[in-house]
Amino acid sequence: MRDIVFCGFGPLAINCLNALEEAGYKVRFILTHEDDSPSGVKHYAIEHNIKYSTSDLRKDKELLASFIKDEQRCSDEYLVSVNYRNIIPAEAFSLFYRALNLHGGPLPRYRGRTPHVWSIINGEKYTAVTCHIIESAVDAGDIITQRRVVISADDTGQTLLMKMNAHYPELLLMSLNLLEKGVKPRPQNHALATYYGKRTPDMGYINFLQTFCCIRNFVRALAPPYPGAYCFLPSGQKIIIHKIEKSALEIENQEIGRVFEHEGSLYVKCKTGLIHIVDYAVEN
């Protein structure tokens, strides 16, 4: 088995590291991000006596030079990326026998950041986990394996990610096995590509000029532990909305987007009717 240089962060990465270990692969170096959690990748590296770095290869020229210096060794190894936030420069990934990335979206659609969240926001019925070859253009490399994951009507960003989590290690091991057998990855149809950027908490403001269905998708995509969808009370207080339902109440003369109280509950009018705000938190 070829050795592996692993780039990754969070539970998705830990699951893949455990799967690689169980399958008999040797991970000789880990690139990760700063995290002092006992369940984090950095702790995993320390616990398993694996050399690691939290540096960005684009900025740490000394670290990059160490890989280039070891080019002969790298040329017989895999580079594997799982939930790694830094872009790996071509000077690094081109050194390896193959460089692979696991992506939480149905490439060529949903290239970019947090594709599972964007998929729920957009009302998709399914997403996918994709293992592809790394190249300079983000998420544009040839596809080795891809597995569809159904998005249920009640999935949140977190529950969908948990569903997808189980597929990451399976697809990684399957992809490594296929590459060893000489299976050729298939090129993406770039004409079908879509790209979504990084989401920030301020992007969670709810547009009540949309339909109830669109707003519900938006709310569940951003539900805890994610930052949450939000709006403001007439007092100016910000409320984080966790769950909404369509209301059958008929209350006239309500302005779209203005939250009001009725019989102890909060409601707001949207483009297609009245929304009952079932679960929320007032931000101090």
Automatic annotation (TrEMBL):
The gene is arnA_1. This is Polymyxin resistance protein PmrI. GO terms for molecular function: methionyl-tRNA formyltransferase activity. Transmembrane segments: none annotated. GO terms for cellular component: cytosol. Residues 200-279 form the Formyl transferase C-terminal domain. SUPFAM superfamilies: FMT C-terminal domain-like, Formyltransferase. It comes from Anaerobiospirillum thomasii. Residues 15-171 form the Formyl transferase N-terminal domain. It comes from the Bacteria. Gene3D superfamilies: 3.40.50.12230.
